[in-house]
Amino acid sequence: MSPIETVAAVAQRLAVLLSAGVPPHSAWGYLGAPDGRPAGEVPKPRSARDAPTNVEGTARIIAAAAEAGSKGESISLAIALDARLVGGQIAQAWLALAGAWEVATRSGAPLASCLRQLATTFRDVAQLHRTVELALTGPAATARMMMALPVVGIVFGTLMGFDSVRTLFLTVPGLLCLVVGAALMLLGHLWNGRLVRLARARDPAPGLELDLMAIAMTGGGSLDSARLLVQGAATEFDLPGRVDDAVLDGVLELSSRAGVPAAELLRSEADERRREVRSVGERRAEGLAVTLMMPLGLCVLPAFMLVAVVPLLLAVLSSTLQTI
Question: CA angle at residue 54 from 50 to 56, to 5 degrees?
């Protein structure tokens, strides 16, 4: 289970408990900590310098939320405080949950349905990331294999009986080839890494601002109050909260003409945004196989020639001259 799906499972369980009539502050306590600690006990990191793992971070966040709820404090702020200590993808999901909890609480939207919808959103995002990462597996493996070409060339020359290693490290031409080849390999490595990073999904939670707007409008408030509430939560919890005015105006106009709740249309727009991001990510990953040819041709292959082929030729020439 991915980190985002872990948060989705927590949101789904909370929705079930709340639907059964459990008060919000008690629902977190019933969840308890995944490692068996009492609900109100916040597990401490193994040492001051160790960042908590995903499991430890989830345990800490659940326990902190339960403790804050039992004291009448803000559950969303307690979630955000511990989520920032975890970092990474799971922290972004927890901050999204904290923002949705805050928006739903302040707007008066039903928490259970909001959490259930948020769990579905998290699973969609997890599937999006999984799809893009799967598409990147082949190109990323190709990049790693290309980086091994110079080393393979040196080993191949040694197995053929030529002293290319001594030529590479103990002669002036060999050292020059080694320095230039290593620089080209480093450049190729950095270039490959940048291409792979650019091909990955850039938005950790596409459509989240539309989901938050839908939650705010479910509470029955005005458009301006919903917008301010979402922007405030986005600032407080480091979330994308700027809803495109053109998108929002189009949704409201369609809602008025068709008599359809604006919140449902906003969720539909969020789903469409995620589908678009998935499609773009897949196309970007497919194009990566082609763009990886650039560092291969401009960096890796010249480095292979300098580190593997040229020392081999020098060794052959030296051996030939000594024989003569």
Answer: 65
pLDDT digits (tens, 9 = 90+) for 57-83: 788 889 889 889 888 889 999 999 888
Average of per-residue pLDDT across 203-215: 78
Which residues, at least 6 apart from 73, have a Cβ–Cβ distance to it below 8 Å?
A: none
Give the closest residue to 10 by CA, choosing from 52, 87, 63, 53: 63
Which single residue is written with the structure tokens 């948020």? 118
pLDDT level of residue 204 (50, 70, 90 thresholds) = low
Q: Which long-range contacts (CB under 8 A, 24 or more apart) does 250-258 make?
A: 252/223
Predicted confidence (pLDDT) per residue in 12-32, tens digit: 999 999 999 998 888 898 886
